[in-house]
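Box 4.2: Ligand-aware structure prediction
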Amino acid sequence: MRTTEGTLIDMGSDISRRRLLQAATGLSLGAKPLAQKAAERPNILVVLTDDHGQWASHCYGNRELVTPNMDLLAETGALMQNAYTPVPSARRRAPHSGQAAFRDIPMETYAGPGKAIHLPPGDSAARHEQLAQYYAAVMYVDEQLGILIDELESSGDLANTLIVYTADHGHMNGHHGLYTKGNATAPQNFLEESIRIPCILRWPGRINAGRKHSFPVDHCDLFQTILDAACARETKGAHGKRNSPGRSYLPLIGENATRDKQIWRDAQFCEYGNARMVRTDRRKLIVRYPPHAPRFGDELYDLADDPRETRNVIGEANNREIAKQLHTRLDAHFANHEEPEHSGRDILKRPRYNPNEPWRVAL
Ligand SMILES: [Ca+2]
């Protein structure tokens, strides 16, 4: 097994592989005979980059930069169109730190659906420079990804390797007049550019090549998908303790997949600090909790009419029932999966680890 840092880990015999898996993750192998499992299991290479927004990828439709290796993975693998980060990373500061009061942000509409222009009107040379640097970083990552793919090819391992390319969360480069991610505003935001990530999986012969999938997925699902590919599963105790909402989507993207998205969930849930979001195909509800609420109210966006999330329509009478239904779904999801000792609703009671936490800055 080769890690993203290039370190070779000698997985040795099947027994040592099994012990390593169990020791590292609390996993156990499934019920099939061990020899059969070993033959089915691929090498797994996961490339998880920092702050790479889905919008900044050629294979996701951006023609302003070239990412031939991500394109190659997409052409020969599965491209997840609606991949989200369930909890945007709050443990590290973004490279371009910025802070602004949410109320003061001009929510302009410089880009409509189907027309990707990633600079706001009236852009300055500095904004061009920042975008150019961001694109350069993405293309550098793509180049390094190509080196990894070449290494796998030259070692003869490419055919039996599941390659996953994804990111921890998105990023804004002037989108909505903002820079960085969910912490670009106080309180924190759930704008699509902040939470939508690239997610591409390639595994020849096991994952359908060149397919795009629109059902919503996140990293909780990716974890289970990787376990599935490795023919491993969590022990009952580990699974019960984690109580993750994640599910493997390997059956939905695999060769000869017969199941379709009807059996998959139709909503994506996120938590970021003490705010939560549920997003369906059509709508996005953001709920804020005390002490932010009621000073900062909840938000509802109709993404069909307003894909740029410029009009909070939660106060409109004809949306009350819709907002209520989404709120009920949100509550049910977190009631089922929340770990009380780690609940985002209590995050203000936790030690500060970042001087610019958007949920504190807003107070
Ligand atoms: Ca990050």
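In the box above, the bound molecule is calcium ion. The CA atoms of residues 68 and 142 lie 7 Å apart.
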